[in-house]
């Protein structure tokens, strides 16, 4: 009986290790990136548009997979209207008119794709490049930290009425619809007077809105731009954006989980390009400090810089920090991976290095890999106080110098990469080989 018990315990230990999943970084017993993502979007050819979307959509409308839609200029969903998009539908942003789609405050989008049949927003050009078209805006009724209850987007959008670009309110639980299994490719067109559009802008979006399984790739602006609101984000992917992968501002209250940012020093623009940029304002006088300031909780993120020669790219200034934390913000990251940056984190120089400030900026159970330094204050080369603070065993952070091909399961796979961490060289998968 004792021998049988020992055999059973041995089996459970082996079985548990084989089918375990790494707790840090993006997680899952299966690679949840498959099959809905696409890391080679320029290799896909879509049919010519059969329908045109332009102006205002002011009555409930459904887009169907059987058609291909062209966003001609700035398109607005207005007047408490619901836009429903069938799984597998392709929507093309027009290059000449910087096509964009805005879901105005009070209206809704139901873009509920499938992991085998995602909804795709992409460029109208045969040879696609970052910034070919505008992007997707969702405006809601959740609070911001600006004065007054409402603000307006300032991206050069041309609405038929000012209310169509206003966002913010007093309902943190407001519902703007569903965005799930959606790809947004080659967005972020630049306008002369207003700067870059972003892949997906969520402005004043509330908790009841579902935002999950979204991939933004090759965006000229920020991949994900969160302006105020109180939003929950899950399983997001930002791939080779030119500016920030995830930008949070104007009092955003955000929880982001199980998400991925992949930087490339060869696709970033002239501006500093980061995975995460956390701020509470652009100008301090714009912020109402009687309201909540930006507060971001991140869990199980993988932030990775893919470089052919990391040391050289750092030397010539092509690699920046992964995370920038501004003053008057709160930021916590747990069980995450930060790999290949210069350095991993920079805190704004106006943040005082004391226990009161650092209680609002937490790095716990996080794996710092292959970074040229870990956590610094902007403009200060000596970070001993921060190293001592975050290096304490109480935070349980880990520091390493492993190459990507040994750190991640299959990061070099061009079609179906797997950025989950290896577990003692055992691949976390439920796949059973033909030999079993």
Number of strands: 34
Low-pLDDT parts are 1-19, 425-436
Strand content: 25-35%
Structural class designation: mainly beta
End-to-end separation: 28 Å
Mean pLDDT: 91
Biggest sheet features: 17 strands, parallel
Shape estimate:
globular
Q: Count of DSSP helices?
A: 5
What value does the Rg take, in angstroms?
Answer: 22 Å
Helix content: under 10%
Can you give a write-up of this model?
The structure is a single chain. The protein is mainly β. The chain is built from five helices and 34 strands. It has helices at 2-18, 310-315, 355-358, 384-390, 404-407, and strands at residues 51-53, 56-57, 61-63, 68-71, 74-77, 82-85, 90-93, 100-103, 108-112, 119-123, 136-139, 151-152, 166-167, 177-185, 190-191, 195-196, 200-203, 210-217, 224-227, 230-239, 246-249, 253-263, 276-278, 295-305, 323-325, 330-334, 337-339, 345-347, 361-364, 367-369, 375-377, 398-400, 408-410, 418-421. The protein has a 17-stranded parallel beta sheet that branches. An eleven-stranded parallel beta sheet has the order 2-5-8-11-17-19-21-23-25-28-31. β33 and β34 (418-421) form a beta hairpin. The two termini are 28 Å apart. 50% of the residues are buried. The model is unreliable at 1-19 and 425-436 (pLDDT under 50).
Please provide a brief summary of the model:
The protein is mainly β and 436 residues long. Helices cover 9% and strands 34% of the residues.
